[in-house]
Amino acid sequence: xxxxxxxxxxxxxxxxxxxxxxxxxxxxxxxxxxxxxxxxxxxxxxxxxxxxxxxxxxxxxxxxxxxxxxxxxxxxxxxxxxxxxxxxxxxxxxxxxxxxxxxxxxxxxxxxxxxxxxxxxxxxxxxxxxxxxxxxxxxxxxxxxxxxxxxxxxxxxxxxxxxxxxxxxxxxxxxxxxxxxxxxxxxxxxxxxxxxxxxxxxxxxxxxxxxxxxxxxxxxxxxxxxxxxxxxxxxxxxxxxxxxxxxxxxxxxxxxxxxxxxxxxxxxxxxxxxxxxxxxxxxxxxxxxxxxxxxxxxxxxxxxxxxxxxxxxxxxxxxx
Length: 320
Fold this sequence. Notes:
The structure is a single chain. By secondary structure, the chain is α/β, with parallel strands linked by helices. The chain has eleven helices and eleven strands. The strands form two sheets. The chain has a seven-stranded mixed sheet with strand order 3-2-1-4-5-10-11, with helices on both faces. A hairpin with a 2-residue loop joins strand 10 (282-287) and strand 11 (290-295).
């Protein structure tokens, strides 16, 4: 291939710009032309496509978000939308596409693959819920953002002997809650993948206070329920001086960590290698600290996200 393109889609994630940078710089190094598609699949169908040069990605490695922008475009789920996108790619002479994003973005890449268009998917989502990889671009930055908040919340929780319920993002996956909760020393972690008993939650708070604990921090994944609802249910078992903190979209922003920058750079460069060889229909991942490529159809249709059960068990054993 001599001419490729890159787009970002769905929710933004720190490190997306680093991945775009790697795609652009690696493609130019290999003597290829590279184009950027603005606003994800919506921009693809609209033909909002521009050629990218070396200087276009200068200083992008440290910036959060995505300078190619992103947008929701449910119409791309239809065959009509997909064929319009392919028509635009052919119009610009683009022979292969790199898609950076989460589950919805991967579904779009899967559709293009089924139409015979060479596409490589890079996992970019703070939710860390993409099958075929241990970690996604943006996840490490997000959990460090949450960790910083947990450390600050603990100070005020201790000062007032309170229970803090901290609601974090993640859609239907509990990875942000799990990793941030363990690293932040949370007393309890509530995730969608594990059932919980509110009576047991209340009992653990009481037991902690009887042992002299001055605070309780509960990290709640949004896929379970919202923080205020959780607090209402908890109050049915007693007054635990609970306060709710919803961290929200602050988790998506910020300069990416070194880990996310390196991972994004590795993914972006490897994607170009595959497209240069004429290969598509793949999604990249990191498994056991090794960059791998998997068939995108098999990965999405047969794979599923799996929580780290060992981490969940660890927190139960050491939190109190």
